[in-house]
Amino acid sequence: QSGRIGSNVQNLEIEGIKDIIAVASGKGGVGKSTTAVNLAVSLAKKCQLRVGLLDADIHGPSVPLMMKLHGKPELSAEKKMIPIESYGVKCMSMGSLVDQDAAIVWRGPMVMKALEQMTRGVDWGFLDILVVDMPPGTGDAQISISQRLQLSGALIVSTPQDVALMDARRGVKMFSQVNVPILGILENMSYFKCPKCSETSYIFGKGGACKTAEDSGMEFLGEIPLEVGIRSGSDEGIPIVVSNPDSAVSEAYSDVAHRV
Ligand code: ADP
Question: Where in the cell is it found (predicted)?
């Protein structure tokens, strides 16, 4: 198939996992990890699935902070790492294995080696779904991860800002080149509703991700507003779907979980 990137890659098949989905963004800082975390917890709590969360963002792992992970994974009798469980989700992140600063300078081959350890070297047990928090961008690392993990699909996160949407479209193209279906696009930081006067401000523009989804025939998975509770939940290691499960935002994450 023209435009398809090489298919002769060694895959990192992990036994016992039904589906692996990626949460991706073309650009950093748009809320990819926040989405991955809230989605994984929603899949476990609302959809009653057995869920894992793999933090493939080797250079900037956020999962330990956002999921309040402590310590290092223990080893099983077969010398595999046992994922650290938090809020009903089995988590694995580079941030739990090495000092944050150590991995920052790693180059491609080391990143792939680390990823191999964090997939096949882990006793994941039986999972219905493994959510992968991808590194931001559309380069070699993302392509290898997509191919080697045999992804069932990818969810794209973008803000409504043009520059983020442009990168999101690049992400869509990359996944289609490696034959990974796009599950849809979720708009994050869609608007801010002032808690004092209730006025809604479209800080990063309005409706951009919905239009991008329409233009490229993708499903639009909804809007997540800019909210203090989402940010503080991430920083405190208590995702908003845990701290405030009945909020509109938690409902929105639950809706995404049911649709993916
Ligand atoms: P990425 O993984 O794309 O780099 P993160 O998920 O780490 O982005 O989010 C970047 C920052 O923005 C974090 O501090 C996070 O808490 C915050 N954030 C993400 N989404 C929202 C939101 N909807 N409202 C408020 N803060 C958010």
Answer: Mitochondrion
